[in-house]
Amino acid sequence: xxxxxxxxxxxxxxxxxxxxxxxxxxxxxxxxxxxxxxxxxxxxxxxxxxxxxxxxxxxxxxxxxxxxxxxxxxxxxxxxxxxxxxxxxxxxxxxxxxxxxxxxxxxxxxxxxxxxxxxxxxxxxxxxxxxxxxxxxxxxxxxxxxxxxxxxxxxxxxxxxxxxxxxxxxxxxxxxxxxxxxxxxxxxxxxxxxxxxxxxxxxxxxxxxxxxxxxxxxxxxxxxxxxxxxxxxxxxxxxxxxxxxxxxxxxxxxxxxxxxxxxxxxxxxxxxxxxxxxxxxxxxxxxxxxxxxxxxxxxxx
Length: 301
Hints:
Largest sheet: none
Structural class: mainly alpha
Order of helices and strands: HHHHHHHHHHHHH
Number of domains: 1
Low-confidence stretches: none
Number of helices: 13
């Protein structure tokens, strides 16, 4: 018994050490860059969004709205109140849909984390999230003409924590909040990946999520719902799965459904959408993630 536990501990430590060495500095850079954007760029970015949203409509609005959503450093509980403020100032709902959808899926910090997955996976993640935002904007534009898709009653602009007059203190406080928010999930992701590497054979991953199985894309999209808690925490898992044979399409599906159905995000979205439109949102995410995963497998694998 003791010999088994000792051997188990050695294996876990070995794989944990490898994973930490591989992705630790990406996590550090993500925290630092995310805090820099939040402290020095966020206010200007959202003011720019407000100006553009009033002027642009149609395809140009969806494209820029989705890009700006990816660039926004806010989590969903910050994005929804910001969009409520935009809506009160007359910004069109299709622009808001594109902005909010891509903001749910990606932010500058998660982009930096995802560099650890390699350039191909990073590019697919950015492009698929961008297209998801654009598609959401188009669907709201054509499907809800003359009707409101969002209900922002009761939402107020999020509290600004970066108010210290000293810029360096604002930055340090923001870094501290980022570390507290992402650190435990990063460590949990590393531990789960090490546990996975120790006990799950690589051929099992290849069989379940392999390149030529549509079922693998569907399964990855499905497990993204319960497994996704924090973007940084899922990077070690994705690294391990991809190394063990997971197809790029399956990873794409997971990277869309995970953040889009993250439980904390769903709470804010349900309040802003209402029951009927919330169901439409879930159906859209499921269909888009499955289609995106299948297309990636067909054209990029």
